[in-house]
């Protein structure tokens, strides 16, 4: 069976994602599409609009055969670490290809750039350039792009400050460093750009624009044309079942309380809290009245909105630097969220070759390595009322993966 991996967040699942799945299957002639999907908190430091279980269900109904959770340790990270974890899982699952969306649509140029960095001297110069630019106050994406230009190893038509190009480059680099045999494939983003705030096409919109539409009105019918019917219904069902979608504003009281009642010294032990920024966080937590006001007060040229959001997630989950260091070398397990019959057959065929445990249900046996995922789910559920919170936590700890028959 030909297997192709994709790395996704589905926040929420929309028509652009459906196009990606269909093209990934067509371009690679795949029998099985395996999605490694972020859990309840995402790469840019945001809570997912609905739970990982709801998003896994959307994926199955749109044609994905297997949905695997990207552990929190790798999910709420800058691009390099995010890619390392995702590629390691796809490789462990025996994928022959991995397929990603990009602004460029040019996989060969991205491979060429990654190949250049295999030269030790070039890579050392590149890493030095990035560190220098970061020390000068540039963000990581800008430092990355500037580093490429400084060394003269960037293609003129590839903009590596764009989010999907950055991720695609890091997927390829991770696959090379891990010495996998997976073949990279890319698909051009269709119609909508990653950061588009409004609908720019009749049927395709960015997840950003879709979330904006959902949170700006109690009536979500405006998004009906840009998401599959199954995803639209899943969103309605989630709101009816749990009473709320998830937004940073809902978590602000918890974050504010944590910042105001935790000493600066204790905050400094948490992951990504560095260089004394804990004092800035505490100062503005006292002044701000909502999350967006807090973020606008705290962010600087050096500390971007995304970097601070990730930091805030780690503060909410009380994730210490020492915990991340212990678990971020490589994924220690494969958490199965959902599968159909084709995915089930594929898993059966490779199960004996798996190098790390496959977990289909939360187990005390794996409690230590799943601690961060457990805490993140508990935090994610806190904005819900008692009944809905209990329902979501029961789904996490007591029920098996979703199986589509």
Features:
alpha/beta, tRNA(Met) cytidine acetate ligase, 405 residues, ligase, 8 strands, 19 helices, Rossmann fold, tRNA binding, tRNA(Met)_cyd_acetate_ligase
Structure description:
With 405 residues, this protein is an alpha/beta fold. The protein has 3 domains: 190 residues, HUPs (Rossmann fold, 3-Layer(aba) Sandwich), CATH 3.40.50; 32 residues; 79 residues, no CATH class. 51% of the residues lie in helices and 10% in strands. The protein has 19 helices and 8 strands. Strands 1, 2, 3, 4, 5, 6, 7 and 8 form an 8-stranded mixed β-sheet that branches. The two termini are 19 Å apart. 45% of the residues are buried. The mean pLDDT is 92. This is tRNA(Met) cytidine acetate ligase. It is found in: Cytoplasm. It is an enzyme of class 6 (ligase). GO terms for molecular function: ATP binding; ligase activity, forming carbon-nitrogen bonds; transferase activity; tRNA binding. Belongs to the TmcAL family.
Summarize the SSE layout with pairings.
Elements: E1 3-8, H1 15-28, E2 32-38, H2 52-61, E3 66-70, H3 72-75, H4 79-92, E4 97-102, H5 107-116, H6 120-135, H7 140-151, H8 163-177, E5 183-188, H9 207-215, H10 229-242, H11 248-261, H12 264-267, H13 277-287, H14 291-298, H15 305-316, H16 321-327, E6 334-340, H17 341-350, E7 358-359, H18 371-381, H19 386-398, E8 402-404
Parallel strand pairs: 1-2, 1-4, 2-3, 4-5, 6-7, 6-8
Antiparallel strand pairs: 3-6
Helix pairs in contact: 2-10, 4-8, 5-8, 6-7, 11-13, 18-19
Catalytic activity: cytidine(34) in elongator tRNA(Met) + acetate + ATP = N(4)-acetylcytidine(34) in elongator tRNA(Met) + AMP + diphosphate
InterPro entries: Rossmann-like_a/b/a_fold, tRNA(Met)_cyd_acetate_ligase
Family: Belongs to the TmcAL family.
């Amino acid at each position: 069976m030909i297997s192709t991996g994709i790395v996704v967040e589905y926040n929420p699942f929309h028509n652009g994602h459906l196009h990606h799945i269909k093209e990934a299957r067509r371009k690679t002639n795949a029998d099985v599409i395996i999605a490694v999907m972020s859990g309840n908190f995402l790469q840019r430091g945001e809570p997912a609009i609905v739970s990982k279980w709801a998003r896994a269900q959307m994926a199955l109904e749109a044609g994905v055969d297997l949905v695997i959770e990207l552990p929190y340790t790798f999910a709420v990270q800058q691009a390099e670490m995010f890619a390392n974890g995702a590629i390691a899982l796809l490789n462990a699952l025996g994928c022959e290809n991995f397929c990603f969306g990009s602004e460029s649509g040019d996989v060969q140029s991205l491979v060429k750039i990654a190949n250049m960095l295999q030269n030790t001297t070039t890579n050392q110069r590149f890493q030095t350039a990035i560190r220098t630019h970061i020390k000068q106050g540039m963000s990581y994406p800008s430092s990355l792009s500037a580093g490429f230009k400084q060394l003269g190893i960037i293609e003129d038509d590839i903009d590596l400050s764009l989010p999907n190009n950055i991720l695609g480059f890091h997927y390829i680099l991770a696959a090379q460093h891990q010495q996998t045999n997976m073949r990279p494939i890319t698909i051009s983003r269709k119609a909508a750009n990653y950061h588009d705030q409004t609908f720019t096409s009749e049927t395709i919109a960015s997840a950003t624009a879709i979330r904006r539409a959902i949170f700006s009105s109690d009536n979500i019918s405006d998004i009906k044309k840009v998401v599959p019917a199954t995803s639209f219904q899943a969103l309605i069902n989630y709101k009816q079942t749990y009473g709320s979608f998830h937004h940073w504003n809902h978590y602000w009281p918890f974050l504010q309380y944590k910042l105001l009642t935790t000493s600066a010294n204790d905050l400094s032990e948490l992951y990504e809290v560095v260089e004394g920024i804990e004092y800035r966080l505490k100062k503005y937590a006292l002044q701000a009245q909502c999350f967006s006001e807090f973020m606008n007060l705290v962010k600087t040229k050096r500390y971007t909105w995304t970097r601070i959001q990730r930091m805030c997630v780690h503060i909410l989950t009380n994730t210490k630097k020492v915990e991340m260091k212990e678990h971020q070398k490589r994924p220690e397990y494969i958490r199965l969220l959902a599968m159909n019959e084709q995915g089930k057959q594929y898993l059966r065929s490779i199960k004996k070759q798996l190098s790390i445990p496959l977990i289909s249900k939360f187990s005390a046996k794996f409690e230590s390595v799943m601690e961060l995922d457990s805490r993140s789910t508990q935090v994610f559920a806190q904005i819900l009322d008692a009944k809905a919170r209990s329902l979501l936590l029961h789904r996490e700890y007591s029920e098996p993966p979703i199986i589509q028959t």
